[in-house]
Amino acid sequence: MNNVTNKVDESAELEQHATARVVLIASAAALGGFLFGFDTAVINGAVDAIRGGFGLGAAHIGFAVSCALLGSAAGAWYAGPLADRWGRVRTMQVAAVLLALSALGSGLVSGVWDLMLWRVVGGIGVGMASVIAPTYIAEVSPAQIRGRLGSLQQLAIVLGIFAALLSDAWLAGSAGGASKPLWLGLAAWRWMFLVAVIPALIYGTLVLGVPESPRHLVAKGRLAEAKHVLRQVLDMRSESALDRKLHDIEQSLRSEYRPRLRDLRGSSAGLLPVVWIGILLSVFQQFVGINVIFYYSSTLWHSVGFSEADAFSITVVTSVVNVLVTLLAIALVDRIGRKPLLTIGSAGMAITLGLMAWCFSQASGSGATLSLPAPWNIIALVAANAYVVFFGLSWGPMVWVLLGEMFPNRIRAMALAVAACAQWLANFTITSSFPALAELGLSFAYGLYALFALLSLAFVLLAVRETKGMELEDMRE
Questions:
Q1: C-alpha span between 226 and 228 (Å, rounded)
Q2: If I label 45, which of 12, 127, 196, 339 is the partner at 20 to 30 A Cα–Cα?
Q3: Which is more confident, 294 or 68?
């Protein structure tokens, strides 16, 4: 009897094929990651124009840039329950609508408060897409290529950042400046937001054509539809293999335990040690200041002597570097391991951020009159891009990899939600505080981020476990 069962299991596994269709479906879902990157980075080119146009101080511009992250935290937290109720595809469609409305509203605002409102709306869409897209991809992918298809999400995020910064540079260049009028009498910075309607509509249109997750269909008792999707997406032709796959999904759903917040409680300051490690991974990923580079870099380089056009070009180059090192990280993660890459990244970021802090200590003036003389401006530029290399090789993708696999099965979903929420809140803290920190001095700001990078190195060496090659069932609390 065991031989028969083993043959059935083996047959079901062999029946799954990595079809072109499943790659296209996963790519369509990963566009949510593209919008994630695009929506969060697009404000980079608009910061100076918004600040000048609405007469904002450091605190107000910091909140205007970062308020979307509060919406993202809420969207990420509620995305799971909504996807269980409405389905993965419908939830992705809702996220696309929210992102399109946010882009339209942000580009047509009359004041800073309605800009903040529309940024929060877009943030909710980003948070939803950031959770549902990888979930959907995992649920429709064949086991043998699930990791590679799942990596499309991270690649889509950095491509979204690149596209946003490139479009910012092109629009500002076409108008002669971000605050100058472009088409229909609207300033270029408004078009920076409005162009985000295009990828949002493309995303919404593409997900209209993708099938619902078989797992969700089985959970809702729609077995015939689930079987049709499995046959269509995984190219499973054998009825016995299809029935076996449906049976496995049903058994998984019956035995699945839905964790609650109380399951995360432990003796280490009220939480299980592994939960604290997940939270600190998320917090350190943001506290090293990476999003300062992607949200404020055009303002930064403009303020220290580069022309506005050169500042935009530098920002685009930085985003290209980010894409390339993310590809390198995807190639290395299963060869070198998670912990070694994090260690290399932390050490490299501490050095490059410290060098940036030293460079900006040589600056003269403050605020709009800040000037960074040669050769310090070039050294700071090289150090900033080296910092992006070290981050993109390590803490960018590795934190998401670890959060997806480090928690025990029984608490994985809830622990991941808590860690992801902590990440958005840490992102908000760093992004909103940077303008005020910059007024105290860029040397102080980058010195602070260098300190956090150094602390992250000690944290990795002392607390983070290597998970390379480990089965998910072997993860401990």
A1: 5
A2: 127
A3: 68
